[in-house]
Amino acid sequence: MAEPKPQNAVSKMLNAAWVRPFLFLVFIVVAWDLSIRLFRIPAYQIPSPLDVVAVLRTEWPELLRQSWPTTYATVCGFLLSALFGIPVAMLIAGSKTVESYVYPLLVFSQSVPKIAIAPLFVVWFGFGIIPKVISAFLLGFFPVVVSAVQGFKSVDPDMVDLARAMQGSRFQVFRAVNLPHALPAIFSGLKVSVTLAVVGAVVGEFVGSNSGIGYVMQRSIGTFDLPTMFAALVILALLGVVLFWIVDRIEKLVIPWHVSQREDVIFAS
Amino acid sequence: MNPATKPIDIQPAAHLRLVSDRAGEASGIQLSGVSKTYRTRDGDVPSLRPLDFHINDGEFFVVVGPSGCGKSTLLKLISGLLPPTSGEILVEGEKVTTPHGNVGIVFQNALLLPWRNILGNVMLPIDMKRLPRQQYFDRAKSLLKLVGLDGFEKKLPWQLSGGMQQRASICRALVHDPKIMLMDEPFGALDALTRERMNVELMRIQRETRKTVLLITHSIPEAVFLADRVLVMTERPGAVAAIYDVPLPRPRSLDVMADPVFTELVQRVRKHFFSKGALD
């Protein structure tokens, strides 16, 4: 089909959201390749991008197969952190007593390095999917709670009073005022959480698993197979980006009214 | 009682008289010995000293006072959001203990929910009170028309100017047809020109809807301009310093501000604050 205004189509494409990060990515890869050639970095320290691409091409089926368990563990862990994180935040924001008992401990628990205790989960739950899910959950949980607490607490008390003065029940007021008000904060927590859940799943795979991208990484480090390791990193990054993008899409659907979602003026360059 | 039919041919100095009107205690708002003390960790903080006054049905009653004199507490007490520490409040002869829903509230900020469109925001009290939505849509729309917002029903709050948002919040306060409208510095966040226009409009709305209005303000001219009676509060803990009748005829236009009765009353009210520091 002939394009009536090629000029417009080109500038539209240049303005698409994915173009700029893509250009930047190309720049980084070129810089990577150049510096390896320039400084003569041996392949056992940093592989060249072409080697990594080669691995991605030849090992594609295997990498794809291995990325399913990781994705599965990440998504489960993330969903669990949302499922538990939001109600916990509701309790913390809703009750001073709960807050005073739970919140400090929650913060304290965050300073325990999860990587150090991950082997424990293997001891407890074996080499299956469960330790990975728990590890992903533990990393994803905290950001959800912190953001959601902040969201629930930042409701204008006058607004709540107004709804209460109209004889709204506690639940009604919560559903009509508090919850929608907290959604933007909850979503920003969920976005942090989903990327951390990827990390959590990989950590779970590091310490005790015979499947998943984390397992591939560890195995390839053991054999100094750096191109494969880097290929695994690329897969992980892609996984994180895709999951983040999905949460971002859902956010746009759920809170189209929020400031951050309002249509921007598009500047043609 | 219709404020428009209030006698206006009173003696010249009548507006300087302290008024204590206790007619018809079963109607309007009756406060007897109402005080409020907040209990905090640092001890008790008295907010209101015992208050006794009566607001008549359909009256435009304005409270002026310095910052932090407990004006907003007064509003929460009457709407039933806070229990008084002592004394009792009767609305329409019924003792207030919990939110009774017979009030519409307008705060300084419009406080519209950003995720609801204007019509949805106006309908909020209907949802909270679990009233049949269908029956109130027409009322909500005619209220929006009354304040000049027809055609904006489907807009989101941020698409409206501050004055328009405040008009919408007035509609929200009226949609469930309460007896009383409580307004806490409703136009404090608006620019001076919009504020004057809103005052004129508020008087018109009150005249058309015949609501009892309790309005809290910092502005003495605004108080005198709007009110049937002005209550002057002392500094914290708040108490009644004086209640003045405003014998200016209705309907009033902004020209009334040049009236000698108006200026004298403004002067008189102002003296309450300048004897003890400025009104901030």
Automatic annotation (TrEMBL), chain A:
GO cellular component terms attached to this protein's record: plasma membrane
Membrane topology: Multi-pass membrane protein
Top-level lineage group: Bacteria
Keyword annotations: Cell membrane, Membrane, Transmembrane, Transmembrane helix, Transport
InterPro entries: MetI-like, MetI-like_sf
GO BP, one annotated term: transmembrane transport
Membrane spanning residue stretches: 21-39, 72-93, 105-127, 133-152, 229-247
PROSITE patterns (UniProt xref): ABC_TM1
Protein name: ABC transporter permease
Source taxonomy: Bacteria, Pseudomonadati, Pseudomonadota, Alphaproteobacteria, Hyphomicrobiales
UniProtKB/TrEMBL annotation, chain B:
The keyword Membrane is annotated on this UniProt entry: no
Cited Gene3D superfamilies: P-loop containing nucleotide triphosphate hydrolases
SMART domains in alphabetical order: AAA
PROSITE patterns reported for this sequence: ABC_TRANSPORTER_1 (PS00211), ABC_TRANSPORTER_2 (PS50893)
Organism domain of life: Bacteria
Keywords: ATP-binding, Nucleotide-binding, Transport
GO molecular function: ATP binding; ATP hydrolysis activity
Record bears the keyword Transport: yes
UniProt similarity note: Belongs to the ABC transporter superfamily.
Protein name (database record): ABC transporter ATP-binding protein
Native species: Bradyrhizobium nanningense
